[in-house]
Structure formats: structure tokens, C-alpha cells
Automatic annotation (TrEMBL):
Alphabetical GO biological process terms: endocytosis; phospholipid translocation; retrograde vesicle-mediated transport, Golgi to endoplasmic reticulum
Pfam families tied to this protein: PhoLip_ATPase_C
InterPro entries from the UniProt entry: ATPase_P-typ_TM_dom_sf (IPR023298), HAD-like_sf (IPR036412), HAD_sf (IPR023214), P_typ_ATPase (IPR001757), P_typ_ATPase_c (IPR032630)
Membrane topology note: Multi-pass membrane protein
Catalytic activity: ATP + H2O + phospholipidSide 1 = ADP + phosphate + phospholipidSide 2
Protein name per the record: P-type phospholipid transporter
EC number: 7.6.2.1
GO cellular component: endosome membrane; plasma membrane; trans-Golgi network
Subcellular location: Endosome membrane
Amino acid sequence: MSLIECNLTVLGLTGVEDKLQDNVKVTLENLKNGGMKIWMLTGDKIETAISIAISSKIFDRNTDYKIISNTTDLETIKTFFNEIKRFNMDALVVDGVSLSTIMEECFDEFIDLSMELKGVIGCRFSPTQKALVARALRLRSKKIVCCIGDGGNDVSMITEANLGIGIVGKEGNQASLAADYSIEKFCYVTELFYWHGRNSYKNSATIANLIIHRGIILSVLQGLFCALINFIPFNLYVGIIMIAFVSIYTFFPIFSSVFTTDVSREVTQMFPELYKEPVEQTLLSIKEFTSWNLMSFIQGTIIMFAMVWYFDKELLV
């Protein structure tokens, strides 16, 4: 090129700018405030990837990150890993050449180290490398991995994630068709997570707990009733009572849980910290499940003894 590009008269200059979508900075900041870790896996070169990471606020200008580029020596890579641990660096930038060596020699160590960092940038990644990183994160971390992409190169990565989101863009609809969810703009991700995702989680958890709750109450009532009549196998509920209990008496709490929300759509966007509840799985934890079961046993016992007290003579006769 140096032999060709000489003694030339420049007549014009053309520049191409690949702009970020609207509200990318705010969206990524909200995702981080909601307890998520942001990784960026791209096919761009290192300089471009770092520039995008800074402009989109994945990195700020004070982020201390380590660059691993064009490194095929295992000892050198492990030296870089030790430097990241020793100096408590915030982030890691790695290219596809170095990742190939890492995948062959110390991929698990790389994943474990990366999960402790605030962010990771992957540059010059092939579609296969993106997919392998997504799969390793899903299997190694035991966390929910969400992959977002807008091009054909992101399809394999999206399919490997627990949750795939495709953005309809100028690069075609391949990612959108392969994903679990399709959106038109990246900024819609916050509404998808913080409003629809949070409500879906809370409603699913509430309905599951209510169904188990009413089932345990029925069992407790039947068990205590049999104990009071010397364990005679007598059915406490006739058919119509059971149908009414399931379809009428306990229908309204379940129905209301689907159509009511604890906060408005605007509040979820203003306070992304509310999303930490589904991230931490507080409503489907062992503690929550135990408390619902204990409450069911207590309520069933109270109902039965209240009926015994009220119908004392009829029951004993």
C-alpha cells in the first residue's frame, strides 16, 4: 500500500460513522443498577470496541482494565490473569486470538475470573466464540444469561443463552427470528425486563404459592377431620364443595394477582433497583416456600378448630 498510495492528490474524503442507538447509555446504566453485569462481544477491533464501551458507559474513563491481545503463550496469559487479581482491576478486554488459546488451556479459569469483574469486552470474536462464551457462562456460573444481538453473527450466541433477545435492524431479521423475544430498539430492553419481566416473575411466584397454599389447607383440614373421628376414612368434601373451592372461593386471589401490580410502569423505569428482587429469586426461595407452607398449616388448623368449636355438639354426636 505504501508503494501505491504515494504522489496522490486528495480530491475528497469520505467518513462513515456507526452511531449508537438512542438512549443506549441510559439503558445500560439502568441495567447495571438493576444488578446485571454487562459483557460486550463484538467482531470489531480492540480500539473500536473500547471506544464503544466508553461512549456507551459500559466502561467509564476511570475503569481500570487489562488488554489481552494477540497472545498465544499460556504463561503470558496466566501472568495477565495474576495481574488482574493482584491489582484488583475492574474489567478485561480480550481478542479472538487470545481467546482461542484460553479456550484450549484455561477456559474455566478465564470464566471464573471474568465473573468477578465488572465487565468484559470481547473483540474480533467469531460467531462460534460468542456462542461458546455464552454457553460457558450459563453452565459455569449457574446464573441466567441473556444475549442481545441484531445480526446474523449473533444467532448462535442468542440460541446458547437462557434468554435471547433479537433487535430488528438494518442487518436483517436473523437474530430477531432466532431469539425468544424481538424488539425494535435496544432501549426497549429495560421495559422488557423491569416491567414485563418483573411482573411475570411476581405473578408466577404468587400463583404458584397460592395453588400450593390452598392444596395444603385442604390436606390439613382432611387430616385433622379424620383424626377427630378416630381415623375413619370419611371424605370431608363432597364434589360440589371441592369444585366451588377451586373455581370460586380461591379463584379471585389468583385472578387479582394477574391483573394488579405493586408499582406503576414509570416507577420501574425510575428505580431499576426494584429488579433485584427477581434477580435474587427472593419470591421463589426456600425461605419463602417454607413460610407459605407454615402459614398453610396454621390456617388449616385454625379453620378446623374453629369449626370444631362452633359445631361442637353436632361433630361429637
